[in-house]
Amino acid sequence: MTEIDYYEALEISRNCTGAELKKAYRKLAMKYHPDRNPDNKEAEEKFKYLSEAYEVLKDPKKRNIYDQYGKAGLQGGSGGFGGGHQNMDDIMDMFNSMFGGSTGGFGGFGGGQQRRRANQKYNLDFEIEQELKFHEAVFGCEKEIDIRYKVPCDDCDGTGAENGEMNTCSYCNGKGQVVMKQGFMSFAQTCPQCHGDGESVSKKCGACSGRGFHEEPDTIKINIPAGVDTGNRLRAKGYGNRAKNGQRGDLYLTFEVEEDREFIRDGVDVYIDIPIFFTRAILGETIKVPSLYGEVELKLKVGTPDKERFIFEGQGIPDVHSGRKGKFIVQISIISPKKLSSKQKDMVKNLQESFGKESKTHSSLIEKTFSKVTSWFS
């Protein structure tokens, strides 16, 4: 079997940054995680390979070896893998989105367990993806969301069997588990026949086609706090699937935030690139720059260079935990004219001459460098 290149598997370029690597891995790992793809062997294998790729590429030494020699260069040393090992920081970062807390009755952020009661065909908790526009994530918003949740079938009492009649599972003899022996060790695993229920359906329920549930539509309103980002999860308590006793689980919303064309987000910091005509940079003018919260005044220094950055503290995105805002960072991009009229050329020449020796400081460097290069071949 031909294995996909680690970079291709994570859908990133070979010169990606650590932040880009982490973002790509988190997004794909959440998509293919076994909890979200039960009984999907292909998704499980994909998740393991993504984890393996991330473990290599996040380590500068391993990444350097992989870039030069491929996976073969990692064999035999500390670069071996055991099917997608991850450290606890990465797991908590991916599924708890690096913060916890509370947002009123919706239960706040965090992971949560996929709760499933005995003889129930589905988990009480479930998860959906929620897209947000850039400004909705930055400032927070109220969203009205249409969902579909599962309720037990009345005809079969949620068993999936006609009239609720079940048989003891013949594969595990009703234990719900099977024991596998390998050498002197024994391993217990969930019965693949009854999925841990200990019972099997003799005849499928006609009302639900043996699924044991129906789906009901619902519309909920949820307040999304300011500062959420792609990959963050929010728990909407009591809006999950319904159990036989009427209790409902929780709904988890995983956010995907749309990127903005002008503002570039990096955690709680925000960047913007402002084009400035070269004359304004030379003169050191004061300009007005749009920020997330209105206009800010920026005093350019005389002769401000290209790519110069100006930092405004507390003008960034609020931290979803503390509410403390990050930085607003303005980067200057100097624009030079593509064409000059005869009059403009004369004016620029006169300006250059007015600076005297200062405008010709590069000449001595050029002459010195030419002399050095010439000496190499003499």
Task: Offer a few descriptive terms.
alpha+beta; three-stranded mixed beta sheet; 15 strands; four-stranded mixed beta sheet; about 375 residues; 9 helices
Compact summary:
It contains nine helices and 15 strands. With 378 residues, it is an alpha+beta fold.
Q: Can you walk through the features of this model?
A:
The chain is 26% helix and 28% strand. By secondary structure, it is of the alpha+beta class. The strands form six sheets. A four-stranded mixed sheet has the order 10-11-15-14. A hairpin with a 2-residue loop joins strand 4 and strand 5 (185-190).
Q: Please count the helical segments.
A: 9
Strand order of the largest sheet: 10-11-15-14
Oligomer: single chain
Please provide the count of β strands: 15
**Shape type:** elongated
**Alpha carbon gyration radius:** 30 Å
Structural class category:
alpha+beta
Strand content: 25-35%
Mean pLDDT: 82
- The first-to-last residue Cα distance is 58 Å
Order of helices and strands: HHHHHEHEEEEEEEEEEHEEEEHH
Largest sheet, if any?
4 strands, mixed
Which residues sit in consecutive blocks of at least 5 with pLDDT less than 50? 77-107
Give the helix level as a range of percent. 25-40%
